[in-house]
Each structure stands twice: as C-alpha cells, then as structure tokens.
## 1
Amino acid sequence: MNAPIDITGIELRTERLLLRPWRESDLEDFYAYARVDGVGQMAGWTPHRSLDESREILKLFIADKKTFALEYRGRAVGSLGIEFYDETQFPELDALRGREIGYALNRDCWGQGLMPEAVRRVIGYLFDVVRLDFILVGHFEWNRQSARVIEKCGFAEVKTIPYRTRMGTLERSVEGILYNPVPGNRS
Ligand SMILES: CC(C)(COP(=O)(O)OP(=O)(O)OC[C@H]1O[C@@H](n2cnc3c(N)ncnc32)[C@H](O)[C@@H]1OP(=O)(O)O)[C@@H](O)C(=O)NCCC(=O)NCCS
C-alpha cells in the first residue's frame, strides 16, 4: 500500500547535492530545465511552454510535500518525487508500506552521476527514517539513461506495466523494486 509522506523541513545532504523541498524562488531554475525538449518526455510530461506553466507545477510540488529539489552549486537542477504507485498493478505489496520514486535532471548536468547520488540518499531516508518496506521505480522501456540509474542504485526488475502519461500516450514501464534490508525497520 502507499504510505503517507511529508517532506516538510527535510534537508538531505550528499557529497555534491542538497535535497530539500521546492520553494517559490526556484521558479527560474525549474523553468530552465523543464522547458528543454527531450527531458520531460523521458518521464512522461511535455516540456513546459511558459514560466506560468512551471509556476503552476511548482505550486503543486510545494503543496503536495513529496517532491525534493536537487540543489547543486546554488541552483535547483532537478527534482525527485516520492510518488504514489499504482496499487492495482501490485496486489502482492498490499500488506507492505511503500512508494514509487520519479526524477528528472537539468540536461546540462547529465552524465555526472548526480541522480544516482540523489536516489541513494533518498533510499536511505525512506528506509531509515520513514521506514518504508519497499521502494518502486519505473522507466519507459526505451529510456536507457534512467535504466542505468536504477541499475546503479540496486533495484531488482520485477515486472513491466502499462503507464498512461500526462501527454496522453501509453507507455510500457519497467518496474524495479528495493526492499528495506533491515527487518526491524518493517512496521
Ligand atoms: C535519467 C537521468 C535523471 C539520469 O541522471 P544522471 O545524473 O545523468 O545519471 P548518470 O550520470 O548516472 O547517467 C546515466 C546514464 O545516462 C547516459 N548519459 C550520460 N550522459 C549523457 C548525456 N549527456 N546524454 C545522454 N545520455 C547520457 C549514460 O548511459 C549513463 O549511464 P553510464 O553511467 O552507465 O554511462 C537524466 O538522464 C534525466 O533527467 N533524463 C530525463 C528525465 C528522465 O528520464 N527521468 C526518469 C524517468 S523514469
């Protein structure tokens, strides 16, 4: 089942990144990467067409309290959301508590291992502090870049499920899972 999450006031540090809730003052940084063709489509959303569009999504990020901004060298360069997974596709997980993560990074920052660094930190937070039993993550079959992040972070592939994108297309999402390795953490 999906577990409740609230990242209000949470700050997670890695060697190069600060992960913290989004702020209204991040708007320009957000638009700078969300408007670039070829970034959002890999995660199922259309590139933003205006600053106003980014402002609306940013308001949702702030209100929903489940999406981290990745701050790198003083700028917000990406997002990592603790999303709701599709419970109808995973009846075998009904007795456990989990969520599904999703992410995107400014194209200028690709290829430096920043997202695996962020994902590993969030895994630690979700298992040790929030005490989830499992974390899911999915990538479209053709998205090799995200597949590599998922492999590097140790997720095991479990199944491929249909995924209706916000662009209205239907994709096949390859799902990976990671279980909390500390049995005592399971509630
Ligand atoms: C997926 C994504 C977050 C990866 O972040 P990252 O910090 O660049 O991850 P890595 O540095 O580990 O690179 C992952 C893979 O991307 C590929 N890659 C690296 N630099 C690249 C570049 N400039 N252009 C295209 N692909 C590149 C490589 O195959 C790399 O794997 P490798 O380390 O085995 O060579 C990023 O590519 C992105 O934001 N993509 C668009 C949104 C998206 O796909 N979200 C995930 C939805 S499931």
## 2
Amino acid sequence: MTRRLPWIIKYRPKRVADVINQEQAKKTFLQWLESWLKGKPSKKAALLYGPAGCGKTSLVEAAAREHGLEVVEMNASDFRRKQDIERIAKVAATQRSLFARGKIILLDEVDGISGMADRGAVDAILHLIETTRYPVVMTANNPWDQKLRPIREASLLIPFKRLTERDVVIALKRICSAEKIECDEKALREIARRSEGDLRSAINDLQAIAEGYGKVTLELVRMLSTYRNRQYAPFEALKNLFNAKYIFQAKNAVSQADVDYETMMIWINEHIPTYYDDPEEIWRAYEALSRADVYLGRIKRTGNWSLLPYVFEMMGPGVAFARKIYRYKWKAFRSPQRLQLLAQTKRSREIREGIARALAPSLLTSRRRVKTDVIPYLKIIFEKNPKYAAKIAIGYGLTEEMIRWLAGPNARQVLQYYRKYKK
Ligand SMILES: Nc1ncnc2c1ncn2[C@@H]1O[C@H](COP(=O)(O)OP(=O)(O)O)[C@@H](O)[C@H]1O
Ligand SMILES: [Mg+2]
C-alpha cells in the first residue's frame, strides 16, 4: 500500500547550502554556533524568527547535521508544562561525556507559550538558558509578544526573510522535475501567490494536487488549494452574501471569495443559523447548500467543470434568498466552529499525537515534524481524495478514529474505501 514520503520531508534541506535565500540569517547563525563550539558564545541562546515556512527549523537541522550535533527538541505543545522544560534543562546542563555527541537544544515555536496558561514556562526557559552547556535555539513566528521579552533579551535575535513568490516557484519547479510531473508554470505561480511565502504550505499544496491528479494545472490549483489551518476569514464574502439584494450580488460574493469553494461552504454552513432564525429559512438555506455540495462532489468525481455555475448558483443566491423578506443584518461572524473544535479539544490533540506516533518512525522524522509538516498535508489529501487517503491510512496503519479526524466532512467516503481495500 501507499507509503510514499510527503515531499515536505523528502525535499527538506539536507545541508545549510540547500536553505535558500536566507544568506544573512545563515551567516549570523553559523557564526554564533561556531562560537559555541569553541566554548565562547556571545549569547547562550539564539532566537530565530520570521514567517512560517521560510526555513528556520530547516536551518537548525541542516547545521546540526553538518556539525555532527544531535538535536534535542521540544515543540510548543510540550513546553506548556514547566516540568517538561525542566526535564530538558537537566539534559542541557549535564556535562557531556568525552565520547558523546554534542547537542543543540531546540525549542521550536516558542511563541506558542505566550498565552496566560503558560506562566512559569518563561521562567523555566530562562533557567534553561542560564544553566545550559549546549547551544539553545528557539524559533518563533512572532517574537514580539510582551511575555517573550525576557527571552528576547537573553538571546541573539536572528531575523528570517519571508520567501518571495519567485523563491517559492523555483523551489516548486525543482520538485516537479525531480518527481517528473507535468507542472504548468502558471499553476506554480498561483500556488506561490497563495502561499504568501510559506514554502511548507506551497509544497503541501503541490503534492496534494500532483498525487491526486497526476498533473498540476491552474484550474486544479484554483479548485484545491487554500485549505490550510490559517485563520482566513472570508468576512467580506459572507457579509455580501447574506446581505445580497440581487442575484448577481449573491453570485459574486461566492465566486469571488478569496477561499476555495469547499472552505466557503464550511463557512456558509456555519453561518446559516447565525443569520437566519426562522426555521423555514434555515431549512431552505441548508437545502440549497447541500445541493451545491452534491454538484461539487460530482465535479470532483467526473472533472466536469461545466457544472461549476450551478455550485455558485446554489451556494450564492440559493442560500441568500432562502429568506422570506429582505432585511439588512449585521452579525459578528465567527470562524467556523467545526474547524475550531477539531483543533481545540483534548481528544483531538490525543489523536493528532497518535498519528504523529504512527507516522514518525516510517517517515524517519520526529513527531514534531509530522505534526507541523505532514499532518496539514494529510488533511488536504483526506479531505480531497478519499481513495488515495484510504490507501495511505492502510499503508501507515491509521485507525478509523484517526481517519475521521483527518478527513472531517469527507470521513464517510474515506472509510468506505478503507474498509473495501482492507478486505
Ligand atoms: N529557505 C528555505 N530553503 C529551502 N527549503 C525551505 C526553505 N524554507 C522552507 N523550506 C521548505 O519548507 C519546509 C518547512 O520549512 P521549515 O524550515 O520547517 O520552516 P519554518 O520556518 O516554519 O521552521 C522544509 O521542509 C523545506 O522543504
Ligand atoms: Mg519550524
């Protein structure tokens, strides 16, 4: 069964030279690391910061590999608890034995601790920095939170640049030719544009499309990309939709929204009861939305794009004119609860951890990597391509609960294939 590597793992930089377009950061970081190895660091910790998917963690891993250092790592979900940081601090403070390999202590994504729940974590990290005998490296997207100030002051700050669209396109092209897949230049540019410099999400999108369809075209990119954990709120689109006076306004609201059709559907789904209170209106709106869903499913199965206008018709005017009389309503739009609930509950975190545990050994990578890099990719596959998802699930021995978690609204379909293939 399918056990192909996620490209995000397969193509991660092996050497410092493979980390593209971060020359200044690389230079500063390597100088600092070498000063540590000579025993005279200017600061005992370094804080690498910059947008997601621009090479921070990759640089640490590549530099460690080149210097023969072991990476002792922790990510945000682990250092919410003070005891865990103290455990790492103990390892870090221990004098290395003569034959042991040197280490880098990596606290990945420390901005995850800036919430109130993590009082004590900052102190524990400062203590770790004071007592460590090994270089301590932290990464963050946003290092400017007030809570992190003491950590900033104790660290060498190393900024990373957002990758440009050009950088992203070049990286994607390289992967396309290594994988021998047909990639339309325009499609790659579109992926790059949507990634906003986040190469991790760009590579995940590329693979999700290539593996699902065997080629990468602009049309497929438009259809499939953007389901990411990012909290993009198509507030404008929702407001325009629910307050449309004319059919064309409702249609434009959905066809011009800056998210893919399925994400838009989740948002609309979530807001029908917020916006309508009359049961009949609610019923009619859901009816229209589920028709849109049926059409979209048919398009995906058959590739028959001529049905797309019907999807817009149902999602837009179908939902907007479910109301009996026009009245302008202002509502504070929430982000979709289904997405939030999935991300927040304890059980959900356990499942995520379980998936990481199941995949890490065969992907030859850490559980942290699986959580940050592989799971977002799997979510795309599981939500878009049930057959392929079912094969992956069997290949990696995932449970039905894990499948449900990964596939969300698509779970039933994936499970059908899963049970069929399993026989
Ligand atoms: N500057 C870069 N050079 C080469 N590959 C990169 C770069 N930035 C990101 N990537 C790719 O994206 C993936 C995620 O990068 P990572 O270093 O984990 O990002 P982050 O900055 O969020 O830590 C890597 O596995 C790699 O494939
Ligand atoms: Mg990272």
## 3
Amino acid sequence: MIHKGRCLCGRVAYEIHGELTDVLNCHCSMCRKLHASAFRTRAKVATSAWKTVRGEGFIKFYESSPGEHKGFCSECGSSLFTRFDQQPEVLGFPLGTLDTDPGVKPTRHVFVGSKAPWYDIADDLPQYEDMD
Ligand SMILES: [Zn+2]
Ligand SMILES: [Zn+2]
C-alpha cells in the first residue's frame, strides 16, 4: 500500500511505501504544542518506506528533546515526521498531512495525564497516564 501526503502549502510531498504501525493519540504537552491541537495522532513507519517526492529542501528539523528531531515544512509549518538518533530505522509519523486513507486507526491514548483540560476523550480506546 502506498500512502501519499503533502504539507499545507504543498511544497513538500511524500509517499510511504510500507505499513503504518503502532497508531496512537498522544496527549503530551509537546505534541499538543507542536500541532497546536488537543493531541497528535501518530504512527511508526520504517525510515526506508519514506520517500520525499518533492520539496526535500523545505524540510527543516527542530530538536524537541536530545536526539529527537521534528521535521516540518519551513514554509507552512506542517509537521511531517520525527527522526530519532537512537532508532534511525523508524520515523514517527503524524497522520494529519495524509491525502490517502491509511486504512488504520488509533488504538489507544497515551500521556492522558497531560491532556488538554478543554478536550474530553469521547471514545472507548484504552487510556494511559504516560506512555504505556
Ligand atoms: Zn509547506
Ligand atoms: Zn506526545
């Protein structure tokens, strides 16, 4: 399955030639700030499955914690993926920029202890205070 997506301005386009695994909603304060939203829905993808098909030069990185690099479009700010120095073979992938249906859905909520007070979780997925 090939998943396709773009950033908000369209300068960066990508394909993922592989599976999206370990899909979850992360409510930690870093994800909330990064996405300016109640939570971040993210999966893991193999680094080898990721193809930037356009706009590689627009991708900039912010080191949010030591060894964890958040890749985003430097023009429009869309969050694209996270690179890990300790685990270079996988990327963290927030699903929001996808244009195709990935065929997977979140399986749990993590870092619910840091959840935004203005958002109520309204589904029956398992909730974990921190990672799990
Ligand atoms: Zn962009
Ligand atoms: Zn998080």
